[in-house]
Amino acid sequence: MKLTTGPEFGESLLSRRNRHQFLATFVVNISTFAHGIGIGWLSPVMRALQTPGSPLSFEVLVEEVSWIGSLLGIGSVVGNLLAGLLQDRIGRKPVILALTVPYVCFWLLSYFAQSVEYLYLARLLAGVTGGAGYIVLPIFISEISDAKIRGRLSSMVMLSVNMGILTGYILSTNVDYYVAPIFVLPLPVCYFISNLFLPETPFHLIKKGKFGAAEKSFRYYKNISDDDKSSMLEFEEMKLKLTKERALSVNAFNYKDFLTRPALKAYSMAILLIFTNQFTGTFCFASYMSDVFTLSHTTLDIGICTIIIGVVQIVGTYTTTLLCDRFGRKILLLISCLGCGICLAAFGSFTYFAERYDLSSVGWMPLLLLSLDVFLCNIGLVGVLFVVLVELMPGKIRSVAVSGCIILLSSTVFLSLKIFPVSMEYWGISITMWSCSLVAFVGFILILCFLKETKGKSMLDH
Asked: Residue ranges of the Major facilitator superfamily (MFS) profile domain (predicted)?
């Protein structure tokens, strides 16, 4: 990642002020990297489980594969609910540490699988890890980071996931089914130990009335020495505002806070972004990549195509980290939606004509179009989704509202993963891709008309 920046950024990620924020973001994202490995590893494996050379001793049917794929969404909802209920009660850090448990169980169940039910439960637990992480990590990162670098740090969540997905693709195509868990299981151990040394966020500690611990946390994440009194004005301002908010919330925090005009506007935009994110099909491509390329009439090796797409995902989310704080969130979302719409329409058209004419001379076209689609989707709809969801919500209800949004996201993950293979089977890949393209174009128009830029918004703003 480019750690030095131009004047408009103010500071590099490794400047004295920012280096602890960057380090903490890197450490907590070991979880998202590991989660991505599980997603990427299982994608080609699910196709292998349906062949005579399956690494498992039992048969896995096509309908069972669709359940293995989609149970990730149900697990995500469970993880969302658990993290949403616990993060304000016990803190962000304990929830972050707890992500280790379902992740370890996912690999153990996959390794010792004796029936398809083992894989169902494994995939469900993988969803719990991802769902809880998508709730607590964006909030944790936003609460420890300065506004000037918040976009870059928050977008690292999806960058880490996509790096993990690529690693999972490579593992599944080059390493035996029973060897992969041995490579991966040390990750959660490193993750747990590393996170033990991170302080809780100052936001949460202030809300709990632990002002001494909050000051120490603030000094750590802003890298302020104990004898530097002048730099603590920002902490005192934050403490004053959050303390007043805490005092008022005892009597005033009720359903009316969720029905204010700013809150309702934030919900509508969040719902738009979530549905556009899921039903343009990008996450489905990551889970069913081998099937998509099999139906695309490509003349290239499917395994190589899958790995190339994994690389493109990383390039896309990495690009987000470079551009998010420079140009803002809205322009990236607009470019993402418009580009995805065009690429998906072209992909659907190619597969339509490839079924009727010999297009083997341009058999590389599906890889090119899907690579462009994945890149463009990752620079906006994927890369800045969690950044914008956190920044859209009013401060007083942010934690609960973001949790609700991620629950909706997880529900649409389940729905999209369940219907995507069914759509390809009954409608065909061309109509499926054209439908995803239509979603992207509608998202472009609505974002252009109604979304306000959130770049530079203070986390204390309402």
From this structure: 24-455
Phi/psi-derived region of residue 327, left when phi > 0, alpha when psi is between -120 and 50, beta in every other case: alpha
Domain with 437 in it: 13-198+258-450
Residue 8 counted as domain residue: no
Give the angle subtended at the CA of 72 by the CAs of 66 and 75, to the nearest 5°. Answer: 135
Domain count, the chain: 1
The domain that holds 77 is classified in CATH as 1.20.1250.20
* Separation of alpha carbons 165 and 289, rounded Å: 11
Rounded to the nearest 10 degrees, what angle do helices 116-144 and 30-48 cross at?
150
The average pLDDT across 337-348 equals 95
Structure-token pair, residue 371: 């690579």
**What would the pLDDT profile of 413-446 be if each residue is shown by its tens digit?**
888 888 888 888 889 999 999 999 999 999 999 9
**Nearest Cα residue to 288 out of 150, 141, 418:** 418
Which phi and psi (to 5°) does residue 192 adopt? -65, -50
Higher pLDDT, 15 or 109: 109
